[in-house]
Amino acid sequence: MKQLKILLVNPPSPGIYNLIGLKLPPLGLAYLAAVCREKGHQVEIVDLQVEPKSKLHQAFSRCDLVGITSETNKVHQALKVAKEAKERFGLPVIMGGYHATFLDEEVLRSGWVDWVIRGEGEIPMSQFLEALDRKSDLTTVPGLSFLCQGKLVRTPQTTPPEDLDALPLPARELLPLSKYWMTQVEGEPAVNVLTSRGCPFGCSFCASSQFSGRKWRSRSPENIFQEIEKIYFDLGYRGIAFVDDNFTLSPERVEKLCSKIEQNRLKLKWWCFSRADTIVQNESLVRKMARAGLRMVYLGVESVEKTILDDYKKKLSAEVARKAINILRKYNVKSWASFILGSIRDTRETVLRTVEFAKNLAPDLVQFSVLTPFPGTEIYEKFLKEGRIVKLNWKLFDGAHPVLKGDFLDTEEVKKLLWKAYFEFYREWRYLPQAFSMLKKIMVTSIPPLAKMKETHYWKERLQRVYSSFHTSKMESPSMGPS
Question: Per-residue DSSP letters for 137-202?
Fold first, then answer.
């Protein structure tokens, strides 16, 4: 196979998460890079979340193919990258990610993208590269979309990889890891880890089950621990963010992983996503996770109103959320509760009841978002047909800008209620340290000299840990002992 020089690009994020410094490495691109390298290709990743555009221009000049990931609120940025690659450098462009998967024709008709990979990209990308090398018919590549004589061609969707253990570990060494210091778990910069794919729950506001399927596929505890060891010893991280849609879906699997962490005496701090009902039904699991370094759990509470929860197909109650947070508190695990405002059924009164419930629930952190009909979700198709989406500007699809007209509230009213929700919650005296910490992080990350100082500090700290781990292993090796 002819060796290609492949450039993978993560566009900059213009949303609220960029402002508050919530930046994680583009794990999907790191997986894709590992697969491409297995096929014998050279790969470079440029992450414009944290790297200057000048690096992108340099990378364009030395690559043969550009791959770009696209989320809805930054698809305009993704298309800017594609336009520059094609118009200035004459490069072929392939795009993937959630937005391109669900609105492939829109992306292709921009004129700047040659192909779209739909869904999980490892298998399609591998077969796409083989087809390019053989100059064979691209209709044999599963999960691929492209234009042929002006007509949209969609090849049949591929089955996502069943055996996740067979995938290579993500190529994190291609990423500027020192630049992600701002996402932390109790003062420890965190690296993201994905241990499963697919979601069986099908919430109406979430596209995950459409992108990765309703079948839950899991990596084994042994395979996950192999990655954790690499992160811990080779990269020097002590913080991990498990970013599965539901990390705890199999309590037995998580218990085995926690046992491995404890047995090997890894001093980790980590957080994960879970469901309130899983926490309530598995208190012993929470105890074991806490012993293995769990510091925070993200829970989707969404609303106090049962009718709204039913609309979301959440299959949870507010009372279960209360019990879950009490259990977490019992084991000194912090809770990060998420609420969605601006349902089409919401009134000012129902929103304020949800905010009051959040205050009574007293999680350690709270996130209020507005209901956003992302492409690929059940509500996107429904509300588009009903004419409820009043703003189809993808830049606003970030969970912070209302784009829906409800039965009782318009977008301006929802925007005011969103700000009021945050003010009402965080004005409580016990939350002042969190509010101050967030403001401090925004200030530090937005002032380049201060950000550089922090980056250097955490980089040196990680380097020292890697050196210490290497030195210890050499001292413990039989070949290095006295003869």
Answer: -GGGSTTEEEEETTEEEEPPPPPPPS-GGGSPPP-GGGS-GGGGTTSEETTEEEEEE--EE--SS-
Q: Where are the alpha helices (DSSP H) in 184-334?
A: 208-211, 221-229, 251-263, 276-281, 283-291, 306-311, 318-330
Cβ–Cβ under 8 Å, residues 124 and 141:
yes
Residue 483 has pLDDT above 60, yes or no: no
| Cα–Cα nearest to 49, from 83, 22, 89, 82 | 22
How many other CB atoms sit within 10 Å of the CB of residue 62?
A: 10
Mean pLDDT of the chain: 92
CA distance 80 to 87: 10
Give the pLDDT of residue 478.
41
One-letter amino acid at 262 equals E
Kind and range of the H or E run holding 369: strand 365-370
Instruction: Look at the alpha carbons of 66, 69, 70, 76 in this order and tell me if their dihedral is positive or negative.
Output: negative
d(CA 435, CA 429): 10
Give yes or no for a contact between 70 and 93, defined as CB atoms under 8 angstroms apart: no
Q: What would the pLDDT profile of 254-268 be if each residue is shown by its tens digit?
A: 999 999 999 999 999
List pLDDT tens digits, range 79-88.
Answer: 999 999 999 9
Which pLDDT tens digit goes with each residue over 136-166? 999 999 999 999 999 999 999 988 999 999 9
Residue 358, classed as helix, strand or coil, is helix
Residue 211 burial (CB count, 10 A): 19
Neighbouring residues of 354: CB distance < 8 A, sequence distance ≥ 6? 303, 304, 305, 339, 341, 421
How far lies 39's CA from each of 5, 44, 134, 140, 315, in Å?
12, 14, 14, 18, 43
Contact yes or no for 131/112 (Cβ under 8 A) = no
Q: Can you tell me the distance from the alpha carbon of 218 to that of 76, in angstroms, rounded to the nearest whole number? A: 33
CA–CA distance from 429 to each of 144, 419, 424, 435, 439 (Å)? 53, 18, 11, 10, 16
- The whole-angstrom separation of Cα 297 and Cα 409 is 31
DSSP assignment of 85-126 equals HHHTT---EEEESHHHHHSHHHHHTTSS-SEEE-S--HHHHH
Question: Which pair of tokens denotes residue 219?
Answer: 């990596």
Mean pLDDT of 338-359: 97
Number of residues in the chain: 483
Q: SS3 helix, strand, coil % of the chain, rounded to 5?
A: 50, 15, 35
Question: What SS3 class is residue 249?
Answer: coil
Q: How far apart are the first and last CA of the chain?
A: 49
